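User: Structure tokens for both sequences below?

Assistant:
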Amino acid sequence: MEQDALQYHLLKVFSELENRIAQRVIVALSEQSNAVIGKPLGKEKLLKDVQLCEELQISTAHFYKMKKAHKDFPVYDVFGAKRYKLSEVELFLKSLKQ
């Protein structure tokens, strides 16, 4: 009987812990998608560095030099991967010319 009660309570504790972790992950993901993307997904794609270079028609070497030279370069960290919005990068480049 005591073993069954202990097993029941441990199962209940771990189940509660699992639910709390799942809720925190869901909240964190929704906050990150709202903060990182700023608008609903699908409005503007987040591009990889190579894709951005193709859109801007510049070399990746030039891109990395420019990014290194400007610490305020618009970049998003999506779970460790760097992504870029074309419109924000274009605005940033226009502001450099002024």
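Moving on to the next sequence.
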Amino acid sequence: MKCTINRRAEFSASHRYWLPELTDAENAQRFGLCARAPGHGHNYVLYVSMAGDLDEYGMVLNLSDVKHVIKQEVTQQLNFSFLNEAWPEFTQTLPTTENIARVVWQRLAPHLPLVRIQLYEHPELWADYLGNDMEAFLTISTHFSAAHRLARPDLSYEENCEIYGKCARPNGHGHNYHLEVTVKGQIDPRTGMIADLVELQKAIDEFVVEPFDHTFLNKDIAYFEQVVPTAENIAVHIRDLLVEPIRATGAELYKVKLVESPNNSCEVYTNLVAEGRVTAQAETPVLVQV
């Protein structure tokens, strides 16, 4: 029986986005505050995913052995380090979140049956690497607050209540929406980036967060005048709004996840997945609500 297991680890380290072939002014323009000397630090959280058959003891791998390998090959070397100087791989390609994930894979692959490396720089930014050369995924997490009412204009109040329950009440209700936007791209062999993080954040803020925040979606967002703003429809609309702006940053939009409440969330993927133009992550590319 095939099974995937995950092991969590942590390390604290600093890094600096700075290229010696650029002037101080050019580095500052390209990397912003991240170019400042002597650098800045993060409490990194690492998830190592491995797959294999269950053995006679009901395990894919002995987790004590896995813990030892991760400590010896990664965390013991990186903890309380200056990443730019910790490993030779980071002298050629800057230690961005996505590139750290890639190099961690390279360090662990000879020892463990890896299927994914996921690295959190902080709770609102993380990278996924699946072992595909320079391809990586980067996720930005953000939020907005909005109200909505679930009701089709062509149905009576009673009919809408039968379909949507309390959500059809005439004055609507609100949520603090949690939004995760995942992009895919090729890691630049020098900067370590799949896209300019500042530009990615700017696109998400400009096309989604600012227009949606503190609105009544049915009345303030033209798209939802005729489209019921369910979590699924909101996620689809956000996906469609972001495809081109994110492409302009040099990356490709891969997935939008919208968390309406702790009990309800949905995910939508771009058509690139279905067309085979990007490599799917471990999740199945379907729209789900749980």
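User: Anything stand out in the second?

Assistant: Residues 282-290 have pLDDT under 50 and may be disordered.
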